[in-house]
Write a structure and sequence with these properties.
alpha/beta, five-stranded parallel sheet, 39% helix
Length: 308
């Protein structure tokens, strides 16, 4: 049974196909209103999430399907010690597809091995968040019309940000892409990500601690929050936290067609004064996430039909 745990589970051709489906859903919503009639999505969220869970639920309802599930581990049998594999086998008896978020890295993969229905990883620890990456890719596609020959800046917490690692992995498959990695020394992209996604493929990248110096070269700016809990001491955090606040003044140096993205939630790393800038795409990104989740649910349910 096909599941999506990692963005690399989807080929470049399949990404193109999902983007084409999502664009068709945007243009012809009525055509898809009953596409999942009689189907059930189970949302198994072992840690809290507002946006991702509601996005999956909205996606399924807009396809005419139904949703069952839970939104925290203590409201599930996990509180009694049930294993992830047993939960997945049980839910396979009730639903047609699972969206699962779990604090432990690798848990959705274990669920996928045990389930008899498709499993979509909705985020596992610091590891993978493939449907956020699908939202990011559709946003880039709709704003730029291409993935090739773009300079992508990633700013903030590049060490622990799972969305950043997935996006680097996905975008590294396209020709002519360059990366600018903007972060404090303490929060640089892990060497394994650079090794696998960039160095092995000979993809050019630069690392810098200054957003101002880098912003003028970028086609895409992907902001993430610098999280207090990631620092060993308060002074380092206080010294760095405001160095990556995107405001209208910093944007004066940027290209007129820059695409500003953020996986949300934001704290203060993008000033609300930027929200009215035509380059701000982070709320479009949220909407694009729903359309890509619709496309992915359709694809996996369609494939599952032929496997039974």
């Amino acid at each position: 049974m096909r599941s999506i745990i990692d963005i690399l589970d989807l080929s470049v051709e399949e990404l193109d196909e999902l983007i084409a489906t999502a664009c068709d859903i945007i243009d012809h919503p009525a055509k898809y209103a009953e596409a999942c009639h009689g189907k059930k999505l189970a949302t198994l969220f072992f840690e809290p999430s507002t946006r991702t869970r509601l996005s999956f639920e909205a996606a399924m309802y807009e396809l005419g399907g139904n949703v069952i599930g839970f939104s925290s581990a203590n409201s599930s049998s996990a509180a009694k010690g049930e294993s992830v594999a047993d939960t997945a086998k049980t839910i396979s008896c009730y639903a047609d597809i699972i969206a699962m978020r779990h604090p432990k890295e690798g848990a959705p993969r274990i669920a996928a091995q045990a389930a008899t229905i498709p499993v979509i990883n909705a985020g596992d620890g610091g590891h993978n968040h493939p449907t956020q990456t699908l939202a990011d890719l559709l946003t880039i596609w709709r704003e730029k019309g291409r993935f090739e020959n773009l300079t992508v800046g990633l700013c903030g917490d590049l060490k622990f940000g799972r969305t950043v690692h997935s996006l680097i992995t996905a975008m590294s498959r396209y020709a002519g892409v360059k990366f600018v990695l903007i972060s404090p020394e303490e929060l640089k992209v892990p060497s394994y990500v650079k090794e696998e996604a960039l160095k092995k493929k000979g993809i050019p990248y630069v690392q810098t601690t200054s957003l101002e110096d880098a912003i003028g070269d970028l086609d895409i700016l992907y902001m993430t929050r610098v999280q207090r809990e990631r620092f060993f001491n308060e002074e380092d955090y206080l010294r760095l936290k405001d160095s990556y606040i995107l405001d209208p003044k910093k944007l004066k140096r940027a290209k007129s067609d820059l695409v500003i993205m953020h996986p949300l939630p934001r704290v203060n790393e993008i000033s609300v004064a930027v929200d009215d800038d035509p380059r701000a795409c982070y709320f479009k990104q949220v909407l694009n996430g729903k359309y890509m989740r619709m496309a992915l649910i359709l694809k996996l349910l369609e494939e599952a039909k032929y496997e039974h």
